[in-house]
Design goal:
- The chain is of the alpha+beta class.
- 37% of the residues lie in helices and 21% in strands.
- A hairpin with a 5-residue loop joins β2 and β3.
Length: 100
């Protein structure tokens, strides 16, 4: 497993690369550095802390992150399909005069 690198101005992780980070409580989380902020790998939100250490992801962690993002994307796609179907059903019901 890659060694942890203490976070300093000189040892920031590469910008735009997803790395494993560790906070002051010892919790580990994959994050992506963009400028001075750290984001979730899917860029959905930045975190409100600066990690204390980082290391490159292992192959298993890369696979797990990809699987998590794919799962989230599939769930969002299903929600979108359901919303589209509901909107179309409402439109069709209105066209048939079924809306009160």
């Amino acid at each position: 497993m890659p060694e942890w690198i203490d976070m300093t101005v000189e040892t920031l992780p590469p910008e735009g690369e997803v790395v494993m980070t560790r906070d002051s409580g010892g919790h580990e989380q994959a994050l992506k550095r963009v400028g001075r902020l750290f984001y979730f790998p899917d860029m959905s939100m930045y975190v409100y802390f600066v990690p204390l250490a980082w290391r490159p992801l292992t192959d298993a962690e890369v696979d797990a992150e990809i699987a998590a993002i794919e799962s989230t994307a599939a769930a969002k796609a299903e929600v979108s399909r359901n919303a589209i179907e509901a909107i179309r059903n409402s439109r069709d019901a209105a066209a048939r005069g079924e809306v009160g």
